[in-house]
Amino acid sequence: MIYIKKDYGSALELRIDVYEDEFYCTCPRCGKEVHLDEKMLKELVNCDCDFVGTAFLCNECSSQGYSER
Ligand SMILES: [Zn+2]
After folding, report:
1. What is the rounded distance in angstroms from the CA atom of residue 52 to the CA atom of residue 7?
2. Is the dihedral of CA 27, 48, 39, 3 positive or negative?
3. Which residue of 15, 48, 61, 63 is 20 to 30 Å from 8, comparing CA positions?
C-alpha cells in the first residue's frame, strides 16, 4: 500500500491511504487537472524521476502535440 505521510508537528501526524485512482497532477501548460491512471503511474515509477519534477500534459495539450519541455 502506498500512503501519504505528512508530519504537521509533534502531536499530529496525518496518514492518508492512497489508491491508484487518486493521483492527480496539473497540466504544466494549461493548469488543468490531470488524472493519473495506472499506466501513467507505472511510467512514473519506472522512469526514475521524482514526483515533484514530473508533469503530465492533459489530453488536450498532448493531442495538440505540445511537448513537456
Ligand atoms: Zn493542458
Report:
1. 18
2. negative
3. 48
With respect to residue 11, please indicate whether it lies within any of the assigned structural domains. Answer: no
66 falls within a domain: yes
Is 51 part of any domain?
Answer: yes
Over residues 16-60, the pLDDT tens digits come to 677 667 788 888 889 998 888 878 877 777 776 666 667 788 989
Chain mean pLDDT for the chain: 75
Distance 63 CA to ligand 1 centre (A): 9
In a domain, 16, yes or no: no
Collect residues with CB below 5 Å from ion ligand 1.
Answer: 27, 29-30, 32, 58, 61
Please tell me the total count of domains within the chain.
1
Range of the domain at 58: 21-69
Cα 31 to ligand 1 centre (Å): 6
